[in-house]
Specification:
4-stranded antiparallel sheet; alpha+beta; 7 strands; 257 residues; globular; single chain; 3-stranded antiparallel sheet
Amino acid sequence: MCIKRKGTSTIFFCAAKKKSLTPRKVKCDKKSESTAFESMEISTQARTAARAELEKCLNIRAARAACKACANYAKVWSCPPYPAGALRFAIPKTCSEIVLIRRRAKFAPGELDRKSAAEAFKLLRGDFDPYVLDIERKTPGGFALLAGSCCNCLCGPGGCPRKDGLPCPAPEKLRPSLESLGFDAAKILEKFFGEKLFWGERPKELTLLAAVAIRSDSACAAQRSATLDGGAHSGDFACAKTRFADWLNNMRSNAAL
């Protein structure tokens, strides 16, 4: 994958099925562009992990504390708090494996500060999210976990309507992240990719971590039929075709009864 600059846009070239290069444009405000964006080197890797091995990277208490310290907590539908069962909805016990997808952008030392790093992260998400969702679409029973809080529905100046008690306006795009479900991203990177997550006021690289859980409808149905109440509201027995937004709404409605 390579990147070229053209005017006020960044053009991402991704390999297509016929090995041709297809451009994808992501608009960027020229005033906020950093010279660091000119030299960033992007690499993407994928690893397949067994559910049991991935769950060794769970650190729910630390993840919840980090989420609560974020400005998006309880204000954006992609972020916690979730109803009980969110982890088992995304990665049920019937899920045998998960595809982990890592994208890393490297910069020269000192080229990024915190503000420009946030801009670069948003720019990278503009291409990475559709890439992960495309893998989800092509994977039978696939369910994507995106790299961070929601940035796909473009709610506008008012922001996400969650704070007003209203449902997600783009349910087809709503997905949680690994961290929002309680996973330690740094531990996942080290365990499955042999890499360390870089921290600092002036980062020299940015890392995006996403996943696609491979869920089975037939296995879910078999477990559901074996329960007394049908497991209608359990994350473990959710249909693989159920959207995350619909599951959230159903759980909220049941809690209100």
